[in-house]
Design brief:
Radius of gyration: 35 Å
Distance between the termini: 38 Å
Helix content: 25-40%
Largest sheet: 11 strands, mixed
Strand content: 15-25%
Strand order of the largest sheet: 3-2-1-4-5-14-13-12-8-6-7
Number of strands: 29
């Protein structure tokens, strides 16, 4: 079995160095080794390469470039080129032998045998790194069955149409041939066995795009003039005497060709790395280009050697290595000919084999293990069987889901998706006043019964009301009357139409009575502070209203967040309305309270009127742990009392007062995490601000609430992924292809769920769909393996009797 080596060069430059990751594993398998190292700074490497490049291009060899910048130096000699070539090779290998890179080298030598068939992928987006002749690495030269290819860091596999044919379909473009011989390329291609070749000789651009759109091609070949524009690293081909094209100008036609089965592009022309970089966005499996201007004879000889080795059955990598090394015989006339050919690989695709390109349906094994094909009994899964097992899998999963077994996994996946969302700006309509631990200590002489003394509250409210806030919410329990020493405070709490206090309803889960409201505040100025928490103590739901029990000391029906948002919106002429179907209407916001089967809450009965809490994350944690992640401007009590409050942050705003002192234990877990990976706990006042902001943003800005599909929509979604799992297994015969397609399907599922959350704020079932996809694939694989064994026995019996 071959080996796959991936060498990832991360963000960096020649002035600061590059981080490097090495992965080693078998082909078609996950890496079994990963190790990191670094290439140290070495600005001389690109300078020496440019020096070699200038001398090489000044040789004035008869080659296939157009549009390359003209060098003004005197014409170089072969001796000059050979000298700088050796100097560069020494410096390059000295760089790769540096101490910081030694762990990479030693792990390579430890894990790879000289006789191994090795495919090396160099992943980097640095164009200067891509241009370097990596085949000169002395470590690679020790391994005769190894070849290196370039790869972009970002890649994906394209779903291609599978076609079967007795011949390889090749589109050969013979472009502008001014000063070069492309007829030899045409003659060499005509020698290929089992090939159906269409030649376009100096075509018009429209003819070329029509051919790419209208037919299925497996190989695209170009011979002629080409160049790379160094400033923007864009490649250009010259299709005739007057017209040239970049890959981006052929993007739609080439994308369609890739979807229809294009697997290899060969540009037997000059300076092709720019072409390869543009092709990377189209995700073609493999490309062969020339690194620098290529002499006409070198291009022809490489094509001859490569086609002979490739058609003989060698893998594309070994065919390129053989053809490249055979060019050494020309280097007395054409120096550095072996430097020129390079492979560019899409890592999501497997390397090509000539025989696989033209095998027809009669040659394709029908078993998953690719042993001897069954001749008389098919192993394909029928459509009706796929439909049946996918429906059965969906039914089983929905039953398990409704029992609540999947709830922890679903909630965890939901949290992870939430954390991936981009940050939002703080809500400037709110101001949070926090009572910190320092504020509590500063009030000790006032002997407060809680975190906020009567004196401090009186001073705070007086300062705040001076700046005319729209509404003030006190998220601190005060189940005791105001001291007789502060009659003005009691009067303000009793008569103010902008002050809202909190109480707590009966705690049915803990079996404890609630918390009484302040005696001075009437029921219309109250909101409850009860929070709906999940089984893992994380707050994901926003409780809006709840009918209190007759024994509850707190008699209000609405949450503090609703009371605050309602008063703010009422001042803007927006009234809370109720529809006959049970929906709430608040400005642009129309919603129905959460149902028991919502999202990942199957098997959990919802109580009261509640919605999912759509957190407004700032994207980063603040330096003060007690501050949590703030979704609104905030200021401490001490700062307000010492005159640091800005009037513009108060006027017309919602002010929420609450404690962040850890001694009062008013902290709640959120779906977000700290830098240490633990769930982030935030103070209750910040949680109330999240809830108020959610209502305001939805009612005024149209920011959507989190929502879920109805039950029938989730059933269809889960069934669709279940059916896809069976379909992949039924029609992708190789286990390698099934694994690869399964990985792509799971990635697509995850991306789809995240896209729904970002674009529509919709929580789509991820875990049930993933289990449906994988579970149905396993059922189909098991069924096919059993059927294969039965069919083999039947065929053996048939042969014996015959």
């Amino acid at each position: 079995m071959g080996k796959l080596v991936i060498l990832k060069l991360g963000e960096g430059n020649f002035e600061q160095g590059f981080p490097v990751t090495l992965q080693i594993g078998d082909e078609n398998a996950r890496p079994i080794v990963e190790i990191t190292g670094a290439l140290p700074p070495n600005p001389e490497i690109p300078r020496d390469y440019h020096r070699w490049q200038s001398i090489y291009r000044n040789l004035r060899l008869p080659s296939r470039p157009i549009g390359l910048p003209k060098e003004h130096n005197q014409v170089s000699t072969l001796e000059d080129c050979q000298r700088v070539t050796e100097e560069f090779k020494v410096r390059f290998n000295t760089w790769l032998a540096s101490d910081s890179f030694r762990p990479i080298r030693e792990k390579w030598l430890e894990k790879l045998m000289v006789a191994d068939n090795i495919r090396v992928l160099l992943q980097t987006k640095d164009f200067r790194l891509q241009k370097l002749p990596w085949h000169l690495w002395d470590l690679l030269e020790r391994y005769p069955q190894a070849e290196i290819a370039l790869s972009a860091p970002a890649y994906e596999q394209v779903n291609r149409i599978t076609t079967t044919s007795d011949k390889v379909k090749i589109l050969a473009i013979l472009g502008n041939s001014q000063g070069i011989d492309t007829k030899t390329d045409q003659a060499l291609l005509n020698l290929l066995p089992n090939a159906d070749i269409t030649f376009l000789v100096e075509p018009q651009c429209q003819d070329l795009t029509d051919q790419l759109w209208e037919q299925h091609w497996q190989i695209l070949f170009f011979a002629g003039h080409s160049s790379t524009q160094e400033t923007n690293e864009i490649g250009k081909i010259y299709v005739n005497q007057t017209e040239s094209l970049t890959i981006s100008q052929l993007k739609y036609a080439l994308r369609k060709a890739v979807e229809r089965g294009l697997q290899l592009a060969i540009f037997n022309s000059c300076d092709g790395l720019g072409l390869a970089r543009e092709f990377a966005d189209l995700h073609i499996p493999e490309i062969i280009v020339m690194r620098e201007p290529v002499p006409d004879r070198v291009a022809q000889q490489f094509l001859k050697y490569f086609l002979e080795a490739f058609a003989r059955g060698n893998s594309l990598y070994l065919a390129v290595r053989e053809a490249r090394e055979r060019l050494q015989g020309l280097e007395n006339q054409f120096p550095c000919a072996t430097w020129l050919p390079v492979i560019c690989q899409n890592p999501a695709e497997m390397p090509l084999n000539w025989g696989e390109l033209f095998r027809n349906a009669r040659n394709i094994p029908t078993s998953l293990s690719e042993t001897t094909p069954v001749k008389r009994i098919t192993n394909r899964l029928g459509f009706s069987f796929l439909l049946l097992i996918s429906m059965a899998m969906t039914g089983i999963l929905m039953g398990v889901r409704y029992s609540g077994v999947l709830q922890p996994l679903e909630l965890s996946a939901f949290d992870q998706l939430l954390r991936l969302r981009p940050p939002e700006k703080p809500d400037s309509r709110l101001l949070i006043v926090t009572v910190t631990e320092e504020d509590v200590q500063a009030q000790k002489q006032e002997k407060p019964q809680g975190s906020l003394s009567d004196k401090s509250l009186a001073q705070l409210l007086e300062k705040l009301e001076t700046y005319q806030p729209q509404v003030i919410g006190l998220d601190i329990y005060r189940d005791y009357p105001v001291s007789k020493d502060y009659p003005a405070l009691a009067e303000r709490m009793r008569k103010s139409d902008r002050f809202v206090a909190v109480c707590q309803l009966d705690d049915s889960q803990a079996g404890k009575p609630g918390v009484k409201p302040p005696p001075e505040v009437s029921s219309v100025g109250l909101g409850f502070s009860d929070i709906a928490v999940d089984s893992d103590n994380v707050v994901r739901r926003h409780l809006l209203s709840l009918m209190p029990s007759p024994s509850s000391p707190c008699t209000t029906q609405y949450a503090l967040s609703v009371q605050l948002a309602y008063r703010y919106l009422d001042a803007k002429g927006i009234q809370l309305q109720f529809h006959p179907d049970g929906a709430w209407q608040l400005g642009k916001l129309r919603f129905k309270p959460i149902e028991s089967h919502t999202g990942g809450y199957q098997g959990i009965d919802a109580f009261g009127n509640q919605i999912l809490l759509n957190y407004r994350s700032s994207g980063s944690l603040e330096a003060i742990p007690s501050a949590g992640f703030a979704n609104a401007p905030h200021i401490t009590l001490g700062e307000v009392l010492t005159g640091k409050l800005n009037a513009n942050t108060v006027k017309g705003k919602i002010v929420i007062i609450g404690t962040t002192a850890e001694t009062f234990h008013d902290y709640w877990l959120t779906p977000y995490t700290t830098p240490q990976g633990k769930l982030q706990a935030i103070p209750g006042v910040f949680l109330q601000a999240q809830m108020v902001s959610q209502l305001l943003s939805a009612a005024l800005d149209g920011r959507p609430l989190l929502w879920t599909w109805p039950l029938w929509g989730e059933v269809i979604w889960i069934w669709g992924w279940s059916f896809l799992g069976g379909l992949l297994t039924a029609y992708l015969h190789r286990f390698t292809y099934i694994s690869l397609a399964g990985g792509i399907a799971i990635t697509s599922l995850y991306a789809s769920c995240f896209a729904f959350l970002i674009a529509y704020s919709c929580w789509v079932p991820l875990i049930p769909a993933m289990l449906a996809l994988g579970g149905n694939s396993l059922i189909a694989i098991t069924y096919l393996n059993i059927k294969f064994k039965i069919n083999n026995k039947a065929n053996l019996k048939y042969e014996t009797h015959r």
